[in-house]
Amino acid sequence: MNRLEGCRIERLDNQACQIVLRQVLEREEMEDGVNTLSWLLAYCHDGVTWGRYESSRRCWQLSTNAFPDLCPQISCSNLLELRLFGSESEIMLWKADGSLSGRLMCNQPAEKKASSVQPGSETRILLGDRIIGEPREGFTRVGTASGMEQAVPLECKKKDFDDGRWPLRLKVRHYFEQDRKTGAVRVAATRLVEVFKEAVNAY
Q1: How confident is the model at residue 136 (pLDDT cuts 50, 70, 90)?
Q2: Rounded CA gap, 9 and 2, in Å?
Q3: How confident is the model at residue 1 (pLDDT cuts 50, 70, 90)?
Q4: In a 10 Å sphere around its CB, with 0-12 CB exposed, 13-18 middle and 19+ buried, how is residue 136 labelled?
Q5: Is residue 132 pLDDT above 50, yes or no?
Q6: 160-163 long-range contacts, Cβ below 8 Å, gap at least 24?
Q7: Residues 6+ apart with CB under 8 A from 42
């Protein structure tokens, strides 16, 4: 177990990773301890799949079901990286030497005094300046003029993209460490936090 300012990291072995993957793919109920996980992002050999956690059903809904022609089926054979994330924590799985490795990253109370290694958040712009078709099952197919597409786990409307806007956002949280000799500060770990639409009147 590693500790960064404001963060706890726990390693997951292959068996634990397989359990998480099975819960996602077979829509099994997740444990109560991970009820802050709301979103899913999977990088596969043949594309990207998004997902969201439906608390009423206690299972994951994937963009593969809404847009099977665009989003690949997640499986142990084609998965490169999987992130389940929310406001307080993230589970990340990745393929390594033919098996799965992983880690659980959770928020921890930070030191009260200000320091150079306190966690910080960043908002990134997600691909998409236009809607392609109508939303399906809570997912929306979006794209760009160059033909790039993805199906995000949000219900979007055409007006969200008025005037060529890119309204989709991904919030991330950075955790830092400081070199004892040089004093240089660098990002030691990053986790995903939230997917959302920026309000039209935000500009």
Answers
A1: very high
A2: 5
A3: very low
A4: middle
A5: yes
A6: 160/131, 160/197, 160/200, 161/128, 161/129, 161/130, 161/131, 162/200
A7: 48, 49, 50, 51, 74, 79, 81, 82, 83
pLDDT digits (tens, 9 = 90+) for 82-102: 999 999 999 999 998 889 999
Percentage of residues of the chain with pLDDT beyond 90: 71
Cβ distance 13 to 103 under 8 Å? no
Query: CB of 39 within 8 A of CB of 194?
Result: yes
Residue 49 has pLDDT above 70, yes or no: yes
- How far apart, in whole angstroms, are the C-alpha atoms of residue 168 and residue 140? 11
Cβ atoms of 140 and 34 closer than 8 Å: no
**Which of these, 133, 159, 128, lies nearest to 146 by C-alpha position?**
128
Q: For residues 160 and 142, what is the distance between their CA atoms, to the nearest angstrom?
A: 11
What is the Cα–Cα distance from 73 to 67, expressed in whole angstroms?
10
Q: Can you tell me the distance from the alpha carbon of 92 to that of 130, in angstroms, rounded to the nearest whole number?
A: 30
What are the tokens at 54?
Answer: 């439906």
Tell me which of 65-69, 117-121, 170-174 is least confident.
Answer: 117-121
For the cut 70, the answer to whether the pLDDT of residue 164 exceeds it is: yes
Other beta carbons within 10 Å of 69:
7
Helix (H) or strand (E) holding 158: none
